[in-house]
């Protein structure tokens, strides 16, 4: 990247590793230095919580606001009814209005932690595209908006082309998604003078469509900026773990488990993740990322504390660190571990340890739990667990027991 920006925002995006591409560096840079500007990122309401895969772009919005501009979080109450086909091999399941509204309410809890929604010049806006999409007249929309789109060009976008090349069905419903997303940008520019759409690099085609449409209809100059699709140093998609998605809502993933995810970062990713997911100075991130041996573990703890503090608060981060030290360094139980509470009815005459491993989230299936035991990866109260047929009864649960999968994943099991 040889461009030398004047605006603090683009400089920060480059310096911290957020920037993949931009439709017009010079034009956007000039706009950002001329006063407060408005930018948005769209989020379809496909789950009740955002996950770690969304966190990079949430941090982009946070920096945008911190550096003197106005962010919009656009909830896809309308577009979720269609489903984004980008780089998917199949159609998304269609959700009803009640589920979409419930998902949006869950996602809003996360945004409130990172952005300030107020009436100031830079106060964030929470909008829902159902506001303008739900009442569209189909014939008017086709005539006024659809005529600006070339099907030939739409078919050339990689997100669509890759699906068709694999001879996987792309419904007409999904094909309309990019037109609706482009229309979002047009409406946000018209209503809120929004000049910038940001998103992951897989959204490039959708963003460019919105820019072209707005130029054609309103003759306004607007911009797009994308972030890289984040993978870990070993090539895995960011945000996936053995236990599934790393959710950002505390009621779907405990602060301790969230903290532990960051503590388990591989050595090669520490410096990069510090720059992206914390607000520590870049020099400090580079210094910690270059540490070796046992010192890099303290950098990982710092990473986990900083990221957890932003989402769940300093108290939750300190509690998670204390629990981790108790569990790992002292071999203790730790009061903040993920906990499975069983009733006497659940327990009956006894429950197999394999079922407990699955129920506590340490394995996805009984087959995986048995393999864990056979490969000496499971422990019960820090002792090797070798008997997959072991039954746990009420007497064994007179006090909580600790189950472990490998060295880093633990859960408590207790009786109600």
Overview of this structure, please?
With 416 residues, the chain is an alpha/beta fold. It is 46% helix and 14% strand. It folds into three domains: 8-227, Rossmann fold, CATH 3.40.50.620; 254-329, Tyrosyl-Transfer RNA Synthetase; 339-415, RNA-binding S4 domain (Structural Genomics Hypothetical 15.5 Kd Protein In mrcA-pckA Intergenic Region, Chain A, Roll). It is built from 19 helices and 15 strands. It starts with 7 loop residues before the first helix and ends with a strand. The longest helix is centred in the C-terminal third of the chain and has 20 residues, at 293-312. The model has no long low-confidence stretch (mean pLDDT 88). Strand 14 (401-405) and strand 15 (409-415) form a beta hairpin. The strands form four sheets. The protein has a six-stranded mixed sheet, sandwiched between helices. Strands 9-15-14-11-12 form a five-stranded mixed sheet. Helix 15 (293-312) packs antiparallel against helix 16. Belongs to the class-I aminoacyl-tRNA synthetase family. TyrS type 1 subfamily. Its main location: cytoplasm.
Q: Could you tell me how far the N terminus lies from the C terminus, measured between alpha carbons in angstroms? A: 58 Å
Number of domains: 3
CATH superfamily of the largest domain: HUPs
Class of secondary structure makeup: alpha/beta
Residue stretches low in confidence (pLDDT < 50, at least 5 long) are none
**Helix amount:** 40-55%
CATH architecture of the largest domain: 3-Layer(aba) Sandwich
The percent range for strand residues is 5-15%
Compute the gyration radius: what is it?
A: 24 Å
Work out the number of β strands: 15
């Amino acid at each position: 990247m040889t461009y030398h920006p004047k605006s603090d925002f683009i400089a920060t995006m480059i310096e911290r590793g957020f920037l993949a591409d931009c439709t017009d560096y010079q034009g956007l840079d000039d706009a950002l230095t001329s006063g407060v500007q408005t930018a948005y990122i769209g989020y379809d309401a496909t789950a009740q919580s955002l996950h770690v895969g969304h966190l990079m772009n949430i941090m982009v919005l946070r920096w945008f606001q911190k550096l003197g501009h106005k962010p919009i979080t656009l909830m896809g109450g309308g577009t979720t009814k269609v489903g984004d086909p980008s780089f998917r091999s199949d159609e998304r399941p269609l959700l009803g209005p009640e589920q979409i509204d419930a998902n949006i309410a869950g996602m809003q809890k996360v945004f409130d932690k990172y952005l300030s929604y107020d009436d100031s010049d830079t106060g964030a806006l929470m909008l829902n595209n159902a506001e303008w999409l739900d009442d569209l007249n189909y014939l008017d929309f086709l005539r006024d908006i659809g005529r600006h789109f070339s099907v030939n060009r739409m078919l050339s976008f990689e997100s669509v082309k890759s699906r068709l090349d694999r001879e996987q069905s792309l419904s007409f419903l999904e094909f309309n998604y990019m037109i609706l997303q482009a229309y979002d940008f047009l409406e946000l520019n018209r209503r809120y003078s929004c000049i910038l759409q940001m998103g992951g690099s897989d959204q490039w085609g959708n963003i460019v469509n919105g820019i072209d449409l707005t130029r054609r209809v309103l003759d306004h100059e607007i911009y797009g900026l994308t972030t890289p699709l984040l993978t870990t140093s070993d090539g895995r998609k960011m945000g996936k773990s053995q236990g599934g998605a790393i959710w950002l809502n505390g009621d779907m993933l405990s602060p301790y488990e969230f903290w532990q995810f960051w503590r388990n970062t591989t050595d090669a990713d520490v410096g990069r993740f510090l720059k992206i997911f914390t607000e520590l100075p870049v020099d400090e991130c580079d210094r910690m990322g270059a540490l070796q041996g046992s010192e890099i573990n303290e950098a990982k703890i710092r990473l986990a504390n900083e990221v957890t503090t932003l989402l769940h608060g300093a108290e939750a981060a300190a509690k998670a660190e204390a629990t981790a030290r108790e569990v790992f360094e002292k071999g203790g139980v730790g009061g903040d571990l993920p906990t499975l509470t069983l009733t006497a009815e659940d327990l009956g005459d006894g429950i197999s340890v394999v079922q407990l491993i699955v129920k506590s989230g340490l394995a996805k299936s009984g087959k995986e739990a048995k393999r864990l035991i056979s490969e000496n990866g499971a422990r019960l109260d820090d002792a090797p667990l070798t008997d997959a047929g072991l039954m746990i009864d009420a007497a064994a649960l007179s006090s909580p027991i600790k189950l472990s999968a490998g060295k880093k994943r633990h859960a408590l099991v207790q009786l109600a």
